[in-house]
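## Example record

The block below lists the input lines for one assembly entry, exactly as stored, with component labels intact.
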Amino acid sequence: MSIGNLTKKTILSQANEAKKAAKSLSLLSSKEKNEALQKIADEIEKEASFILQENKKDLKIGRERHYDDAFMDRLALSEARILSIATSLREVTQLHDPVGDIIEEWNLDNGLHVKNIQVPLGVIGMIYEARPNVTVDATGLALKSGNAIVLKGGSSALYSNKALVSVIHQALVQTSIPTEAVQFIATADREITEQLFTMHHYIDVLIPRGGRSLIETVVKKATIPVLETGVGNVHMYIDEHADVKKVISIVVNAKTDRPAVCNALETLLINKTWFQRNKELLFSELKKCNITIHGDQVVTHHLPEALTATETDWAEEYLSLDLAIKIIGNVEEAIEHIDSYGTKHSEAIITEDPQVAKQFMQEVDAAAVYHNASTRFTDGGALGFGAEIGISTQKLHARGPMGLPALTTSKLCLSGNGQIR
Amino acid sequence: MSIGNLTKKTILSQANEAKKAAKSLSLLSSKEKNEALQKIADEIEKEASFILQENKKDLKIGRERHYDDAFMDRLALSEARILSIATSLREVTQLHDPVGDIIEEWNLDNGLHVKNIQVPLGVIGMIYEARPNVTVDATGLALKSGNAIVLKGGSSALYSNKALVSVIHQALVQTSIPTEAVQFIATADREITEQLFTMHHYIDVLIPRGGRSLIETVVKKATIPVLETGVGNVHMYIDEHADVKKVISIVVNAKTDRPAVCNALETLLINKTWFQRNKELLFSELKKCNITIHGDQVVTHHLPEALTATETDWAEEYLSLDLAIKIIGNVEEAIEHIDSYGTKHSEAIITEDPQVAKQFMQEVDAAAVYHNASTRFTDGGALGFGAEIGISTQKLHARGPMGLPALTTSKLCLSGNGQIR
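Predicted C-alpha cells for the full assembly:
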C-alpha cells in the first residue's frame, strides 16, 4: 500500500467527492445514520486484529523516532481501546439528531411562512495529531449530524488511521451513507495538507484538534472558518476567604486527575493572606501528589525547592504534574492575570465570599467559569452533552464542549404564494 | 484637525482601550445602555448641521475623484438621512437585550449547578465602505449588546465618520458607557488598517461590510474570526410549472425594488418548456422595467437585443438593472448552477409543483431559500428581527440577517461546594 503519495489535485478531488456526498447525506433520516454508525462499530470490533497490526507499524516507527512516552501512549491502540472506540460510536447513536429541528417558525403579516431549521454544516475538515481514536470519534459525530468529513490525522498515526478508514468504508458500503462522505488525506506532506485550508468551495469548517502550534498554524493559514479547540491554560484563584479543605481537594483533583487534558489546572493564583495562613499545608499536600511547583519570588522564598517561574510558565500549558503558583493581592489582580495569560477555556475561583465569586464569574472571559468546583467538568460527557468533537475556546458559533448541535447551522425556508415587498 | 495620521502603536492602544471599556460595558443594565443610545440619537439630531458640513468635505473630495453617482449617493448625508439615523438608534432601544439571558440551566447529579448565559462578544471590529450611517448603526447595535466597537470606515467618508464619532463621544460622556467603547481608526493607510486583522488579543470578531473585494481581503488576511456579510449573487429558478403572473410580479420586485442591495435578484434560471410558452411576455415585462438582459445562446437567439452572458455574468453581482438569464432543463440543473455560482445568500424557486419546490428548498445551500416569493425579504427588518449589523453568508455562528443575538456568545457558569471529578 502506498502511503503519503498525494498531490494537490488528489486532495481537491477528495474534497469535491466529500461535498457531493454531503448533499445526499444531509437528506438521510436519523434511523439511517444510526444504522450506519452501528455498522461501523460492528466492523471495527470485527477487524480489531487488522487494526492492531497496522497500529504496530506506527508504534515501531514511533519508537525508531524516539517519541516520548506520553506521545506513544496517545498513539497506541489495544483490544480495550478498540472496544471503547466502538462503544463511543454506539453512544452517539443514542444522542438526539439536531438535523431538521425547527429553531423558530412564524408568519409575516403578508402570509409569508418563515421556518428556521437546523441543517448540517456540509463538509468538516478535521486536522488532528497522534490519537487514532479521533478518526472514528470525529467521523461518528460528523455523520450523525449529516456532515461529510475530510480527515487529516497526524503522520505518526498514518497506518492506524488508514486501517480505521478502510474499515469505516467497508462498513459504509453496507449502509445508506456513501463511502465518499469519509475522506482520508493520506499524506505527511505539510504543503499538500495546507491546500485544504483554503478550499472554501468544498469545506465549510476546519476543526484543528491538538497542540497550540497545530491550532495556530491552521488559524493563520486558513481562509475557511476555523473552530479553535482545546488549548487550556487553566487558572484557579484562591481567595482570602477560601475554605482550606475545598482548596486542597479541588486543586489536587484539577491538577492530578488527568494532567494531560485541556481542563487540567495549570496556574494557581493565591491571595497573600490565605497563603500566609495555609502555605505549609498546601505545599505538603502538593508534594504528596508529586507536583513540581514553579513559583514566583514569594513562593520560592518559602519553598526553596520550588523552581523559579518564568514568562513561559505563566503563558503555556504544562499538561504534566507541574503547577505554576503566583501570590497576588486580590481578585482584580487575578482577573488581570487571567486576561493576560488565559486561553478562554476554564477558569475557577475558590472562596466563601459570594460577592467576590460573583465578580470573578462576571468579569473573567472564558468558555467556563467555576466557583468552588474542579475545572475537570468542562467536558461534554461530564456536563451531559454526550460525546464532543472538541472544546471550543473561541467565542463564535460554539463555546466550550461542542456536541452535535455545533456541527449544524440554520437555514431560513420561506414559503409564499407570490409575496413581494 | 489632522486626518489619517496614525501609526500601528496608536491602533494597538485604541484596541486596548476598547478591550478595557468592553469589560465595564458588559456589566451595564439594558436601561443604562438604552439611555446612552437615546442620548446619542439626541446629540446627532442636535449636531446635524456640523455633521452635514463635514460630509460636504467628503462629497467635494469625492467629486474631485470622479466617484460614480451610486457611490456619491451612498456617501451623501442630508437632514432626512440624519433624522433616519437617529430614528434607527431609537428603534434599537426597543429591541430585546439578549445579554444575561439564560440559555439553559441544570444541576449535575453531584449538585454542581450549571448555567449557560448569553454574554457580549467583547470587541467588534467593523470594516466598511462609503456609507456614513454604518458608523452609527453598527455602534448602536454593538453598545446595546454590551460590546465595544472599533470602527474602520472607508477613507472616502473620513470627515463624515470623524464628525459622527465625535458626536457619539460627546453623547457618551453624559452616560454610563465609557467613550473608549467606541474607537475610530482615522487612517486611509491600508497597511496600518490591516494590523487590526490580527489583533486577537483585543478584538473578538471582524465584520466586513461592503463589496466582495473588501470581504475577501479581510477573510484572507485576518486571523481573528470573521463574520462574512453581504455578497448576494441571488438566483431564481422558474420551473416548468411556474405560475406566469407570480413569475412576472416576483421577478420584477426582486430585480427592480432596490437593485443595489444584496438580496436583489441577479440571475434567472428558466425551465426550457416554461420559456417556450412565456418568453414574449417575460421579455416585454422586463423591457418595461428597463432591465438589460445578459442571456445564454437560447436567450440571445430569441431576443437579439440581449447581451451575450459570459462567465462574469454568472459569477458576479450586478447591483444594477442588469439580469443574467440561462435556459435549463430541470431543477437538478438549477441546483447545480447555484452550487457553482451562488454565494449562499438567498435563492428562490417559482413553481406550483410542491415536490419540486421541496427538493429545491432541501438541496440548495443558502442562508435563505424561497418558494413563490421575492428574495427581498432576506432582511432583519422585513423578517421582524429588527435592525441588523449585516447579512451573514457563512454557516458558522450566524446565518442570514444578524441582529443583536449574533453579537453575543455564551458562557458556562458552574457553581459548586467542592465538587471534584
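Chain B is about 45% helix and 20% strand. Chain B has a mean pLDDT of 95.
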